[in-house]
Amino acid sequence: PVESFVQAMESEISAVFDSGEPEDILSRAFKLTVTREDICTLQPLGWLNDRIMNFYMGLLVERSKKEGYPAVYAFNTFFYSKLSSTSHKGVKKWTKGVDIFEHDVILVPIHLRIHWTLLVVDLREKTIKYFDSLGQKGDHICKTVLKYLEEESKEKRNIELAASEWTLRSMGTEEIPQQNNGSDCGVFVCKFADFISRDKPIIFTPEHMPYFRRKMVWEIIHQQLL
């Protein structure tokens, strides 16, 4: 029954936070090692770190290989800062052996010094959308990524991308949920990515955050999305 599963899950999550050493390894996958210290960033009001963000993106990509889901590619959290400081040349090798254009959706989690945001490329609709739970615009980020896609397409497929066919947009504060504290941005990014990678409308609210945090602990430890 659901109740007993939820109880078992809750006690397991509490044990993760309350016992053991910070350096204990709790999960390994996607060439990442997640320690108790990493997992503890999922405690209430914790700041999610790169390892948690990248691990969760890995889980979304894994799920997308199943029947009935759009094909998802996720860049890691260091990609955008490298791209914006160097250009396509600096990140050319990041997609070695991968044709990102064979996917439906590309997720680009973005770390802006002390804030997480998400950029989503939908190759089916030719859209680039920017999701910020603090409502700031990211039009320049959309443009930087479009330019990257043009260069990547030319380089990898020898196909010119028609930039004029693409729609770039920063999502407005009335379109997507907004955080009501200074620490939930990482969870918002993970959940934006979760809903988008299922082609689902984004209907969660800031009130869901404590629950999402606990759920993510379980999902990362068990390497399985609920």
From TrEMBL:
UniProt keywords, alphabetically: Hydrolase, Protease, Thiol protease
Biological-process GO terms, alphabetical: protein desumoylation; proteolysis; regulation of macromolecule metabolic process; regulation of primary metabolic process
Cytoplasm among keywords: no
Gene3D superfamilies named among the record's database cross-references: Adenoviral Proteinase, Chain A (3.40.395.10)
Presence of keyword Hydrolase: yes
GO cellular component terms, A-Z: nucleus
GO molecular function annotation: deSUMOylase activity
Ubiquitin-like protease family profile domain sequence ranges: 32-196
SUPFAM superfamilies hit by this protein: Cysteine proteinases
Pfam annotation, one family: Peptidase_C48
PANTHER family linked: SENTRIN-SPECIFIC PROTEASE 2, SENTRIN/SUMO-SPECIFIC PROTEASE
Recorded family membership: Belongs to the peptidase C48 family.
Protein name: SENP2 protease
Organism: Pteruthius melanotis
Recorded name of the encoding gene: Senp2
